[in-house]
Amino acid sequence: MDLQEKVVVITGGKRIGRVVAQQIADRGGHLVLSYRGSKQEADDTVSDIKARGRCAIAVAADVSKAADCGALVASALDRFGRLDAVVNMASVYGITPFDELTEAVWDRDLNVNLKSAFLCAKAAIPAMRAAGGGRVVNFADWLARSGRPTYSGFTSYFVAKAGIIALTESLAFELAADQILVNAIAPGPILPPPDMDPEEVAAVARVTPLGRWGGEIEIAKAVLSLIETDFITGETIRVDGGRHLG
């Protein structure tokens, strides 16, 4: 898919999502960015896109709710008249030991990390069919892609991200006849959390075979490749600096 004049929805478009949006704009795409509690960040990204000569809007949406996903897609169609790709980046991440894992935390993690990808794809697919095809890019995790739940305290997160892989493969099969390609990215050490201790940041780099964190641009490159491909579908690609080899 040539991104020139195409319309891409990104959910969770801050930090890494902002760089993804910038790179899509540089390839000629227009952006629809969803946000829930980060309006300023979304507005800043919209400004970035407009400075690049592309069009963008920010839409308030809780993408774990079907109505909000429908409204997000409707906003894209109202503004641009088409929708070509959805990048499902919305995610929550935190440590909850199993003995402290409540139904509420389980539901939050599954709803934001997995259900939202299903709901956004469900809302977007009719518009993609009308356009003659499209792309869905989901976000898993390198541990789930490797089948190695080797960190404690992430049961609900791991289950959700493993579900993303299954969802990606199933949708790819279901939608292939419509020329809608569905793939996923499984990030490893890309961008340290703002509150991570510098010693821990260095420790993560040491156990990564390439010896460093990847940076936002590596995710943007992967997203671009999965939007632009015309023959890859049903794949979950690790972007982890070889971390899964350890």
Explain what the structure shows.
- The protein has eight helices and seven strands; from the N terminus they run βαβαβαβαβααβααβ.
- The protein has a single domain, classed as Rossmann fold (3-Layer(aba) Sandwich).
- α1 packs parallel to α2 and α1 (16-26) crosses α8.
- It has helices at 16-26, 39-51, 66-80, 103-131, 142-146, 155-175, 198-206, 216-228, and strands at residues 7-11, 30-35, 56-60, 85-88, 134-139, 180-187, 236-239.
- Helix content is 47%, strand content 15%.
- The termini are far apart.
- The protein is α/β, with parallel strands linked by helices and 246 residues long.
- It is globular, with a radius of gyration of 17 Å.
- A seven-stranded parallel beta sheet has the order 3-2-1-4-5-6-7, sandwiched between helices.
Summarize, please.
It is built from eight helices and seven strands.
